[in-house]
Design goal:
The chain is mostly loops. The chain has a single domain (4-80), classed as Roll (SH3 type barrels), CATH 2.30.30. It is built from 2 helices and 3 strands. The chain has helices spanning 59-62, 72-80; strands at residues 20-21, 26-28, 35-37. A 3-stranded antiparallel beta sheet has the order 1-2-3, with no helix packed on it. A hairpin with a 6-residue loop joins β2 and β3 (35-37). It is globular, with a radius of gyration of 17 Å.
Length: 103
């Protein structure tokens, strides 16, 4: 999603790997359950497993974290909507910091 016009979202969340695709142009949000249509440029055929054929080429569909550059009108839309009740952030890494040895 290199362009800010490529940002796909429903009423309360941006596109993410856990949204369920109903067909090549409609998806169901995993946060609020709403069904939304995506822009024509974002449409793609689905495979037999129900995933988009281009899922591996789109970071928002295969990565856990994506940075969005949202246009001003999109920010206004979210600010006027319902406030967020909770935000969950999980970091998983193999590095645990310095290990101190007792002597």
């Amino acid at each position: 999603m290199g362009n800010s016009t490529d940002v796909v979202f429903c009423l309360q969340a941006y596109m993410n790997p856990f949204a369920r695709w109903l067909d090549h142009g409609r998806f169901q949000c995993n946060f609020c359950g709403a069904t939304s249509e995506c822009p024509r440029e974002y449409m793609c055929n689905l495979g037999a497993d129900g995933r988009r054929m281009d899922w591996a080429q789109r970071p928002e569909l295969c990565r856990g974290s994506v940075e969005y550059a949202a246009p001003g009108e999109l920010l206004f839309t979210f600010r006027m909507g319902k406030l967020t009740d909770a935000v969950f952030c999980v970091q998983r890494s193999t590095w645990f910091g310095p290990r101190w040895r007792r002597r």
